[in-house]
Amino acid sequence: MYSGAALAGAAAFVATRKESSPVQAVPTFAAPAKSGAFSRALAASAGGDVHDATYYAKCMVGGVLSCGLTHTAMVPLDIVKCRMQTNPEVYKGLISGFGIISKGGASAMTVGWLPTLIGYSMQGLCKFGFYEMGKDFYSSLVGEENAVKYRSLVYAAASASAECIADAALCPMEAVKVRMQTSLPEAKFPTEFGAAVSKIHGEEGIRGFYKGLTPLWGRQIPYTVVKFVAFERVVEAFYKNIFTNPKDSYGKPTQLGITFASGYIAGIFCAIISPPADTIVSKLNQNDSATIGGIVKEMGMVKLATNGLMARIIMIGTLTGLQWWIYDSFKTAVGLQTSGGK
After folding, report:
1. Domain ranges of the chain
2. pLDDT beyond 60 at 38
3. Of 206, 219, 225, 273, which one's alpha carbon is 20 to 30 angstroms from that of 194?
4. Half-sphere exposure (CA, 13 Å, Cβ side) for 142?
5. What pLDDT is attached to residue 18?
């Protein structure tokens, strides 16, 4: 994703605090660093966190906790959402959908929790870790002035790059999860993790785990760009217009509250833009003979955009707020600053 030449060039910078800049989420640059030390040379202007290998490793662990735990906790809602998308004749609404599934007991409400935990933990590791690297990388490419002036583009480029990698890590487990969660009695698809993996591999080979990657990118990359850009700008707005004192003057509970609120607002935007691709991913993984064109023709764009939308708004708004809160809580617990702001 990042070329060796660009990495070597980026290693020539060390980030320093620029007092006059209203934004500290984007690094500023000063003296040249030792060649080949990109991951050790960049530093964040926000609170002085040094962006070395240890910093990125901590961010990756925070991402594992952030995405793995939250997505696993939301499995019951995710099951209803997936079935509303793939079988709308039976699962006509959120409440009625819960009623149908709950008749199967606790096991029916937690189908697919293991591939969810594994897949989204890997996704979180890549998403947050490579996002932090990407911000530093792209900022070093465009220079201090442009990195601040066009910071939203820096956030967008970093988050899109990170999500490309994260989705490749997620895709196999997403395929298993969706097949397990949308399995109906007549389909006879196993709802046990090991058996589900074996069945997909036996019938479709490796392709069965990755055939949903393109629509997954179509769903997740716009979603993640909105998630990160909106979060960064909402946090910035909070500290610029409401919490106008220096960021460090506010206690960690206040800073984490701002993090959660900013994440929730960003999540609402994410939920609105992603349903068409989300439904296509669910349909592709449910039926091994399904195609993107066939799904669009069968359902139409209106249904693709609205099926499961209310469930997504509730799920993604809460999910995104919690993800950022967990991520920043972990960062503060290991001695780092909260994300964004001045």
Report:
1. 4-333
2. no
3. 219
4. 20
5. 38
Angle, CA 120 vertex, CA 172 and CA 212 arms, to 5°: 35
pLDDT band at 19 (very low <50, low <70, confident <90, very high): very low
3-state secondary structure of 70: helix
Beta bridge partners of 15: 29
Q: Residue 16: what are its φ and ψ, rounded to 5°? A: -135, 160
DSSP symbol at 338: P
pTM: 0.76
C-alpha 211/C-alpha 214 separation (Å) is 7
Task: Say if residue 186 is exposed, middle or buried (CB neighbours under 10 Å; 0-12, 13-18, 19+).
Answer: exposed
The pLDDT value recorded for residue 292 is: 78
φ/ψ of residue 29, rounded to 5: -130, 150
CB 315 within 8 A of CB 267: no
d(CA 329, CA 342): 18
The correct answer on CATH 1.50.40.10 for the domain covering 4-333 is yes
Is 15 strand, coil or helix?
strand
